[in-house]
Design a protein that fits this description.
Two copies of one chain form a homodimer. Chain A has a two-stranded antiparallel ribbon. By secondary structure, chain A is mostly helical. The first copy, chain A, is globular and about 60 Å long. Chain A has six helices and two strands. In chain A, strand 1 and strand 2 form a beta hairpin. The mean pLDDT of chain A is 96. Helices cover 67% and strands 7% of the residues of chain A. At the A-B interface, helix 1, helix 5 and helix 6 of A face helix 1, helix 5 and helix 6 of B. Chain A binds a DNA duplex (30 and 30 nucleotides) through helix 4.
Chain lengths: 147, 147
DNA sequence: CGTATATAGATGCATATGCATATAGAGTCA
DNA sequence: TGACTCTATATGCATATGCATCTATATACG
């Protein structure tokens, strides 16, 4: 941040800086707690959660990729790892010869459930315990405006 | 997120999820704008900014590292890149034989200034233009409570 | 002093990410 | 149908990150 002579924008820059700093401070702590308990990265959790939501009809990789705001090649490689770990299953897509359909396996569901306990505890410890109810509600509303 | 039977904590989890999602959505866009204009990553900006703040007395790598919430080896490698680019200078520390002192070079100052224009524009476009004054102020207060 | 422990910083090796491009099937339209 | 374009997914190669460990100096303490 530097001089700009624009009060409103300066404040927005401050808010931006805090947003970035808070997330860059808290996310690694949460991830570290999960890792310390032997769990995979949060991206695995996000993918498995989406796949469970999708239920038995599964998801195409490109759908998951859009949902997770991932680059295509990162989705491709995350898929590899999840397949290798046995947490997702892949079948070829019948109506699109280029495509595949991913779905969560029972082992995937198990790890998702276990991760959720650890994740919830970490969110509580690093975030929820440090913010009051009113601020939580404000954040939900304000951040919810960013689509 | 899953069932927990705890209303307050559920809300905190929602706020957490939005915080993570907003930062994971906006940061890459901002970085992409900078990169499209030929600028280095934001971590370079942060380091150069801290070094400029420190002035002529410079900073020890470990101080910069703490300030930037970086792992030690990442600081070491960021230092390499900044040195190679000519944006920082390194001298040995007189009162600590293990240490060094980093300072920003004139080229570093130039790139910092130029990056700032692009960074400010990107913050405006992706963040400031999408949030109103009241919410900016709320964010500053709420996020400021985290450390 | 001498030994133990702590701190600053670097680095080899494994894994992850970004970038460019490849492959192959789908859609369009003459 | 054939030529073009578009979309879904994969991958080689370069760079970045994480992890463990190394070196060297500093500090503590008997």
């Amino acid at each position: 941040m530097a001089k700009s002579g624009d009060k409103a924008n300066d404040e927005a820059v401050t808010a931006w800086a805090r947003l970035v700093r808070v997330s860059q401070s808290l996310l690694p702590r949460v991830e570290a707690d999960l890792k310390a308990q032997g769990y995979p990265p949060l991206s695995w959790y996000d993918a498995l959660l989406e796949l469970r939501r999708a239920g038995s009809k599964g998801l195409r990789p490109f759908e998951l990729q859009q949902e997770m705001l991932l680059a295509q090649y990162n989705m491709s490689r995350l898929t590899d790892r999840l397949l290798k770990a046995g947490y997702v299953a892949r079948e070829m897509c019948e109506d699109d010869g280029r495509g595949q359909i991913l779905s969560i396996t029972p082992q995937g569901e198990t790890v998702l459930n276990n991760m959720w306990r650890a994740y919830r505890a970490a969110i509580r410890k690093h975030f929820a315990d440090r913010i009051d109810k009113k601020d939580v509600e404000s954040l939900i509303v304000i951040l919810g405006k960013f689509t």
